[in-house]
Amino acid sequence: MAKEKFSLSNPCFRCRMWNRKIFVSFKKRRVSPYGIEIAFSPVEYLKTQGFKVFQGEVFDFPSSWPTPKIICLLHLLEHLPDPLKILRYLSKKFPESYLILSIPSPKRWRRKKDKGDYPPHHLTRWGEKSLRKLFNKTGYKVIKIIYPKLTAEDIKNSSFDKGFKIGKFSLPCLLCAFFLNLLGYRAYSLVIIGYKYK
User: Fold this and answer.
1) How far apart are CA 23 and CA 26, in angstroms?
2) Half-sphere exposure of 147 toward its Cβ, with a 13 Å CA cutoff?
3) What is the pLDDT of residues 139-173, one digit of tens each?
């Protein structure tokens, strides 16, 4: 969607920037990424890579930065003690901006319990129904909900990625992704795209 609707140097504001690949991906599509992160290390690293970043919270958005066309909260929502407060702030401050959220998908492969899925790491759990309610309460209209399919790359580091290679991946790895998709499993993230009510 970013590729189709937001190009030619439109700004994109991202909160929580632990994944450099996202910034690089936006930049390749001629979208100007900038973001805020609480942790010191990723901020300093991305600065050395030439990206515009700021250490702080969402409410610390620098006044000198342009109004974003897209706001990305990628794997942030489940860590927030008060998601309503953040989204209401964003919808009021940036009423013309699209909002893109990603969370751990309830349909994800390998849904086994792990410590990261519970406090103090993940404070909340979300599904399609609860996300729609959250968007409605904070003034956003849901445009699209996406459950990305599993790819061979998603499981390339698992025990399935052994044996005869086809390009970068093994045949068992490719077959595993294919059959898991048939069974209804999906990639780790659920993505939801919204826009503020007019």
Assistant:
1) 5
2) 11
3) 999 999 999 998 888 877 555 445 545 556 677 78
15 versus 162: the higher-pLDDT residue is 15
- Beta carbons of 80 and 128 less than 8 angstroms apart: no
Bridge pairing between strands 169-170 and 32-37: unpaired
Per the domain annotation, does 22 fall within a domain?
yes
Residue 169 resides in a domain: no
Residue closest to 105 by CA, chosen among 182, 188, 183, 180: 188
CATH of the domain at 59: 3.40.50.150
Q: Which two tokens stand for residue 52?
A: 């515009």
The structure's pTM equals: 0.78
Q: In which domain, by residue range, is 137 found?
A: 2-148+188-196
Average pLDDT over residues 93-119: 82
Whether 106 is covered by a domain: the verdict is yes
66 inside domain: yes
Tell me the β-bridge partners of 12.
Answer: 33, 70
Residue 14 has pLDDT above 90, yes or no: no
CA dihedral of residues 121, 127, 131, 133 (deg, nearest 10): -120
